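User: Design a sequence. Structure:
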């Protein structure tokens, strides 16, 4: 029998939209008059970043990095490497890193240390979801969309085994089970 994952909606598209707009407004106020570069972490942040940028009413530059974390598919080992580096010059720029979710914290800690080498004017982190359950290293995001206690989440850029990124809401995912349908009904 076919088995699929059970998805339960925890953040609706409307709720996400409202919060992303609030973050954009705050970021706009905080970076007025500054040379801003927004760096998205691929792949998970691509949808959040696209929506967030459209609420930042300032001149800005956009770049992306891609990081690889060794470990199992569901937990980072703490061994991180860069598979796509920054391409813009960050010297004397105010850098805002956009990430989908902080889990263990290894990814953002690594990236923050790496960005220090670029002689930036500042580095701040904006993260859609702060998940505290499995934090291993101390990292504080400057802008947080939602704090979620625990669980594995998919949708709005977040994947499980590369699936579900295109969902408009964010879902709590339970391990595979025998199900009736393919996609969540409240998508
Ligand atoms: P960290 O290095 O453990 O903080 O994890 C960072 C990366 O793991 C995130 O950028 C996500 O790509 C992925 N990740 C962590 N938790 C989840 C989750 O609940 N759903 C999907 N991806 C996750
Ligand atoms: Mg990611």
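Assistant: Done.
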């Amino acid at each position: 029998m076919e088995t699929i994952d059970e998805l339960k909606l925890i953040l609706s598209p409307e709720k996400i939209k409202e919060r992303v707009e609030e973050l954009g407004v705050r970021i706009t106020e905080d970076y007025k008059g500054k040379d801003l570069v927004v760096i998205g972490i691929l792949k998970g942040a691509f949808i959040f970043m696209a929506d967030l940028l459209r609420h930042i009413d300032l001149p800005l530059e956009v770049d992306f990095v891609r990081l690889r974390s060794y470990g199992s598919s569901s937990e980072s080992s703490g061994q991180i490497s860069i598979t796509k580096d920054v391409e813009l010059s960050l010297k004397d720029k105010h850098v805002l890193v956009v990430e989908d979710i902080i889990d263990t914290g290894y990814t953002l800690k690594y990236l923050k240390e790496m960005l220090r080498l670029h002689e930036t004017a500042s580095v701040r982190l904006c993260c859609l979801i702060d998940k505290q359950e499995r934090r291993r290293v101390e990292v504080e995001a400057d802008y947080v969309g939602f704090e979620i206690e625990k669980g594995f989440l998919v949708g709005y850029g977040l994947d499980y085994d590369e699936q579900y990124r295109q969902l408009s809401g964010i879902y709590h995912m339970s391990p595979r089970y025998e199900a009736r349908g393919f996609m969540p009904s409240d998508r």
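The CA atoms of residues 110 and 183 lie 35 Å apart. Helices lie at 13-30, 46-53, 106-116.
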